[in-house]
Amino acid sequence: MAITLKRQLDPDEKALIIKQHGRICFATGHKIAEVDQIQFDHIRAFAHGGASELDNIAPMCEEHNKMKGTLPLEDFRISLRLKEFFKEGDKLTLQNLLVFLKEKGDIEAFGRSVVVTPVGELVKLENATVSLQSNLHKCPTTGWHYFYGTLPVEVINSDDTDSAGVGLQPRYLIYEKVFELYRHFQNHPVLQPSVGRLSNEKILLFDGQHKIAALLWTGRRSFECKIYIDPELPLLNRTNISAHDNFSQTRFFASIMVAKLGAEFGALFENYKKLEDGNVKSESGFLRFLEADTTQKLSRGERNERFRSYLFNSVLQSKDNRLANFISNGNRSTDEHPLTIDQIRKSMFSNFLYEYAVDDDMTKSSYLRDSEVDNLVHLMNLLYDQALCSWKPLAGKNDASQLRLRRLFGSKPMMAWAELLRDAICARLDLTDREDQARPLYREVSAEQWKRIKKMIDRLVDFKIWSSPPNREIDRVVSDKKSAIKDWLKSKGLTTGYLLGAPE
Question: pLDDT tens digit string along 437-490?
Fold first, then answer.
């Protein structure tokens, strides 16, 4: 018969539990040092109905006991393993997780080749260990064939970019989402299948990777999937991007989306440049070329959006861009990645990158898009060198240097001072024409001019208001509208004139 306990254990009960388990943390099995305090917790959480009985109590180290909170022990162990996996990087997909689980011995294999054979109204999928049969369907809109099936982990993989071509996977895995779904699927069904395609006898999934990632941690090893057999890849890619962008419950405009859109558009752009049709090659000519191409099926708004993504991608994917390493892959900033693509778009891009197609002949020296991209990368690197290189993601909220950087690179403050910086740079470069001011970096910038711009960045970064003590007016103002923040900064002395060298 179990002994019913109060919430607090007496010394004899603690000694009995230690005798049973040793000085071993029940969360991970690591030894607890003699000088460290042992804490005791429910194996099944008290908040979730776990009884205060000796056989439901185990020793834990202080750190893991605090981290566990009210989580059931098994869920806490999964969260620790998930965090171990996510330490491998910030651009992880289902394929990375499958590699991780295979290396840890949780699964034997993944991504094995299969032969898919249509037989009348059926389709057969087989390899050395798997033999499945399913109904064959045909999409009435596209004519593409597809089938539904419960596929074992041995034959699935993520649709990532590799040497064979551009993958369709539009997201990276997010720890919070995987863990939330893992807990959800313990008691709730999966309502929709994951979606993939057959490519070179491989099953590649491009939608629903978070669901499969979560189910893998519950112990599931087979997954409901919808697989396209013969899709038209460009159209499928655009459809997939739209599904994750325009029609998703949460707007999806993250850096990986920019990369996907930009890479696809960039390939079309390069093909256009090589056309020998006698026409002048220009960016605006390229958009007209796409408009006349009925196979693209893009609206004017979609063409313009993809062109902007191509420009953004040119800046963000530059191997020289050091600031880009601080941009989050998702829509929210993190301690390690304090910037977001939306923030960069509304500050650096909106002020320093001309986002519209130009008419300049791309074969002439007057076409300066490459110079503009290089100039913007240079400007972003100045911000990195003079400020963000000191970013310390693990520093506490009271760290003076980190507090200054959080204020300086807050989303709305950055949008506000970027406008002031643009006006100062236009003045320094003697740009008085409105068209020139609209594209301040679309030109050659001399070394001497860069020295002067660097002094502006120095004055911006060293402006005294960023170093105010904690809990001052600035900490309230930074959450206001951009226009209000800009007016407030100017009232404190951060003006175009100050950036140009005038005293505060």
Answer: 999 999 999 999 999 999 999 999 999 999 999 989 999 998 899 999 999 999
CA distance 421 to 123: 61
State pLDDT tens for residues 274-288. Answer: 888 888 889 999 888
In contact, 203 and 151? CB cutoff 8 Å: yes
Both tokens of residue 87? 């330490």
- CATH 3.40.630.30 holds for 83-245: no
pTM as predicted:
0.70
SS3 content of the chain, % helix, strand, coil (to 5): 45, 15, 40
Whether the pLDDT of residue 243 is over 70: the answer is no
Q: What is the distance between the alpha carbons of residues 475 and 323, in angstroms, rounded to a whole number?
A: 24
Closest CA to 204 of 181, 228, 220: 228
Q: Give the single-character DSSP code of 339.
A: B
Distance, in Å, from the CA atom of 250 to the CA atom of 268, rounded to the nearest integer, reads 29
- Give, in order, the Cα–Cα distances in Å from 356 to each of 23, 345, 394: 66, 14, 40
What are the extents of the domains in the chain?
11-70, 83-245, 315-500
Rounded CA separation 429/450 (Å): 10
Residues 407 and 80: their CA atoms lie apart, in Å, by: 32
